[in-house]
Every structure is written in structure tokens, then in C-alpha cells.
Specification:
alpha+beta; 5-stranded mixed β-barrel; 12 helices; 16 strands; binds aspartyl-adenosine-5'-monophosphate
Amino acid sequence: NLRTHYTAEVKPESVDNGQKITLAGWIHEVRDLGGICFVVLRDREGKAQVTLVKKKIDKELFDAARRLIRESVISVTGSVKFEEKAPNGYELLPEEIKVLNVAGSPLPMDTTGKVEAELDTRLDSRFIDLRRAETTAVFKIRHEALQAIREYFVKNKFIETATPKVVATATEGGTALFPITYFDREAFLNQSPQLFKQILMGGGFDRVFEIGPIFRAEEHDTRRHLNEATSIDVEVSFADHFDVMEILENLVAHIYTRVIENCKASLEILGVELKVPKTPFLKLTYDEVIEIVNSRCEEKMHWGDDLGTLGEHTVGNYVYETTGESHYFIIDWPTEIKPFYAMPYEDRPEFSKSFDMMHRTMELSSGAQRIHISELLKSRIESQGLNPDGFEFYLKAFEYGMPPHAGWGMGCERFVMTMLGTENIRDTVLFPRDRRRLSP
Ligand code: AMO
């Protein structure tokens, strides 16, 4: 047996003093003080000190320990000695150290935290970067967030779905597509499960969610755009935009609650203190947002303009100053700047039943009540300069009993990024895809 415990599991509640255990992991550090040698073993959950006293142990074992090479993989069997002064409150007194694989040197990057590596260096050697506690902490929190999302949806009677990522049509007008070759036909990587989750409403699924990749051929190189992102998508029948906004804000509060409960150690490593956002979130209309921007910025925003980065920050700061909260909605966007599937208000069709969920620093989610009337949908597709022929498979589902429905999509990476205050979105993806990066 190469491992009986993780380092962090060795506690007086669960392990006896003197008990024989086996730890496995990487050599974080070897400190040779002559008469005593400390080998710090690191695993996914933390670190442990293996202590070798020259006078007390086998000479061969002592000499082998002194020669261990950093970041090599070892398995150590020994007895536990609880010792308040030792890191984590215990030492391991070894009987056997198995070297499972020797690491080359020098390492492609430092793992001790003494030297701050550039993001690019870290991403180039991601396997080493992931051995750093700060990096692991981000992905443990991301994992917990996704667990909380699934828990919330399952409890609320959603069905989890998987829709194709190789498709024949665009859905999100504003952003470009990645073309691929599909046998002898042109195809694309999907920008959003949008059309499919709507078709599922026609199939009577009522409440669906999907967590999957979306692909956006956006050329810009920013701290908050990826070319492959993870989208959390929701679609609900017999619901309007207000119903799905409520689902969204409650989900956000649920994720924060779970992360606070279950990720104490990781949050501490990152120095992040979280507070559960207060629900319901403030709702500002698009028209109110224009007023806020124009009263605070020199560059004016006109009706029909999208909210730029400066506008997002201005309104985000306004909301934070007035409410102390970071999350809010912008509702009632002009129909012309939202995708074709957003439902216009019956009495003022220039406005749509759409919303964005914002964090103080950026947009996290967009959604809307959808058009479920086939004729209106066709005319909206045409008025956005698209050809309805390409949407035949989608439009067909609206002709044989499509219920009214609404939904939203939220970027997983942006969510984690704003929760943890991460500088760059690439820090929240294991292997980010951007304009320049296609491997690892
Ligand atoms: P939208 O295009 O606004 O809406 O995308 C929804 C959310 O997905 C995230 N996101 C991204 N994250 C990182 N990098 C990107 N390039 C990127 N693009 C999008 C953002 C964004 O708010 N079909 C609609 C959703 C719906 O109405 O259900 C849609 O895709 O957090």
C-alpha cells in the first residue's frame, strides 16, 4: 500500500500516537542539519514533516534521505508522533522511504512560493504549477462551486442535459464562430447550447441545466475572455424572465454558502473572505443605467449602445456604494442589441424581456424570456440579417406546441474569478484556450 492517509488526515481524533501510517506525495523540501534531517512531503491536501535523527535510525536510511531530490515522488511508512511544535502538529518517524520516481532538475518553475512566476510560465508548466497550494485552492473551490450548482438544480427538479458542441449554426450574433471540417461539410464549434435547450422545452423537459464548453472565436486578448469557456445553462418552461432571475440569484447565494462552508482551508490559503450576496439582487433598467453612466462619465452612452467596460465599472461602483452589494441585474434591454430569441415586451416592442446579471467588475450572465411564437421568431431572425433556412431544425420545434419559456447562461470561470477576486480568468481554468495558447 503506497498510501494510507493524506497528510491533512493525520489528527489526534483519527490517528493514534505511534500508529504506523503511509504517506505518499512529492518532496517539497529537504533540510539537512547534519545530525537531523527533515524531509517535507507534500500531497494534495497539505504537507507533513518526516523527521530523521541520525543517532536513532539506520545509517542507510538517513543517508538516502539526505540525498533525496526535490519534487521526486515518494511513499513514506513510519510512526506518527504528535508534536505541537511541528508543522500541522505531528512528525512522521520513518521506517521506510520508497522513491517512486525521481524528478529532474532544475525544475521548470519554483514550487516553494519563494519566486513569483509569470502566468505564462505557470501555464506552460501547468503540472508543476498545480502543485502549488494557491493554484490547487482555486480548483478545489471551482469543484465545490460546481458541486453546489448540481446540488441546487437537482433539488429544484432540473434535468441535466448534454447538447452537441459540433453544430451547423451560430446563435450569439455578436461573437465569431470557429469553423471546423465535418466530413465534407462546414460545421462550427457551438457558441452556446441556446437553440438546443429551447428545443428541449418543446420536448416537454420543463426544467433543464447543462454545464459544458462554449467556444467563442473572439480575437481580443483580455483578462476576462477565453476562447473556450464553461457555461452553466438553464432553460425553464412556463416561466418568464423574472422567474429565471430568481433562480439565478438564489443559485449564486447557494454557491457562496457552500463554498464558505466547505472550502475554509482553500479560502484561507488564498486570503479570501466571502460573504453571501443578499437576495433579491437590485434590478436596474437599461434606461436607469444610461442615466447613471451619463451622470458619472464624460463619454456619454446613447440609447441602443451596449454597456462598455467603463460603463460596467461605473454602474458596478454605483451599486456597491449605494447597496454594499456586488451583484445586480440590468433588465429591459433594447430588443435590437439582444439576440433574436429574446422576447420583446408586447406593449413596447423596442424593449425586450432580457437581463444581464452583473458583478461589480463584469457581466456574469445573460438571459431572457424567449420568443415562443414561430412567426415572430422567424421575423426576428430575418431582421437581424440571418437566414431562417439555417434555423429550420430549430424553428420546427416552435410549430407543434412550444410552451412559453425563459433561461440564462452564466460563465463558470467568470463566476469563480469574481468570487475569488482573481486577476486573470486564465487562473480559473486548468488549461486555458486563448488567442495564443493551444497547448498544453
Ligand atoms: P452570453 O453570450 O452573454 O449569452 O454568454 C453568457 C455568459 O457566458 C460567459 N462568457 C464568457 N466567459 C469567458 N470568455 C468568453 N469568451 C465568454 N463568452 C461568454 C459570460 C457571459 O455572461 N445564449 C446566451 C445565454 C442565454 O440567454 O441563455 C448566451 O450565450 O459570463
